[in-house]
Amino acid sequence: MRRALTYWIVWTIAWIIARTVFLMRVKGARNMPRTGPVIVVANHTSHLDPPLVAVALHTRRMGFLAKSELWKSRFLGWLIGTLGSIPIERGASDRRAYEACLQTLRDGKVLLVFPEGTRSATGQLKEFEAGAARLAAAVPGCQVLPVKIRGSFEAWGTGKKYPKPWPVRIDVAPPFSTDDLRKQFGDKKSLFQAIQGEMLRRLS
Q1: Which has the closest alpha carbon to 53: 111, 98, 109, 5?
Q2: Domains in the chain, please, with CATH?
Q3: Per residue in 79-103, pLDDT tens?
Q4: Distance (Å, whole) CA 118 – CA 129
Q5: How far is CA 136 from its chain centroid?
Q6: CA distance 192 to 179
Q7: Cα-based distances in Å from 182 to 37, 38, 142, 187, 190
Q8: CB 120, CB 128: distance < 8 Å
Q9: CA–CA separation, 106 and 140 (whole Å)
Q10: Would you place residue 104 in the very low, low, confident or very high pLDDT band (cuts 50, 70, 90)?
Q11: Is the CB of residue 146 less than 8 Å from the CB of residue 43?
Q12: What integer pLDDT is reported at residue 77 of this predicted model?
């Protein structure tokens, strides 16, 4: 109960900031599936991206990955843990984080993943890492929801010390089903490539 209350308090604060400071506008929020496992995949250029996506897709609570260094702060570690974050070691294959993500999806919940792995230093879409497509391929019934974020790089991109007011737009595309692709591509390698290709096409 306390964890849920903390989540919604923080969500409310983030919503107010998103709408007043960043004038956030959302298109296609109704594309979020109402039930079942969902991987939300988005481009990543700013520290603002996780809370902005969580605010935009408020109909379902979502988990997300966060770099393990954030847990060095007792308060920050507690806070982002309460919000559903999963710690991951950057630059290494983190099996525990991967298994935690898998379990989130197997429980029929929503997971936010940035396929690029880290923030883009230029604001342009980078090459995708394998994690998001691997997770989607591993969970039957999983749907992938592509989300394009515009304006967050200008608001607080890499190299900027502080955020600044800037209009943010979030476009939520219709989801695609991994089961539909599984029917077309039987072997794991082909399925993985098909899922990753579809993610890239919809986020480009």
Answers
A1: 111
A2: 2-203 (3.40.1130.10)
A3: 677 777 887 776 556 788 889 899 9
A4: 9
A5: 13
A6: 12
A7: 16, 16, 11, 8, 9
A8: no
A9: 9
A10: very high
A11: no
A12: 72
Name the pairing type of β-strands 38-42 and 110-113. parallel
3-class SS at 154? helix
Q: At what angle do helices 2-20 and 49-56 cross, to 10 degrees?
A: 100
178: CB partners within 8 A, 6+ apart = 136, 137, 139, 140, 141, 142, 143, 144, 191, 195
Strands 25-27 and 169-172: parallel
Q: What is the pLDDT of residue 82?
A: 72
User: 10, 64, 34, 58: which is closest to 170 by C-alpha?
Assistant: 58
Read off the pLDDT of residues 117-145 as tens digits, 9 standing for 90 and up.
889 999 999 999 999 999 999 999 999 99
Q: Are strands 143-150 and 169-172 parallel, antiparallel or unpaired?
A: antiparallel
Helices (H), the chain: 2-20, 49-56, 74-82, 95-106, 131-138, 152-156, 178-184, 188-203
End-to-end CA distance of the chain: 40
Structure-token match 């879409």, residue found: 125
Cβ–Cβ contacts within 10 Å for residue 82, how many? 16
Query: Could you give the percent of the chain with pLDDT greater than 90?
Result: 65
Single-letter amino acid, residue 19 = R
- Can you count the helices (H) and strands (E) in the chain? 8, 8
Write down how long the chain is. 204
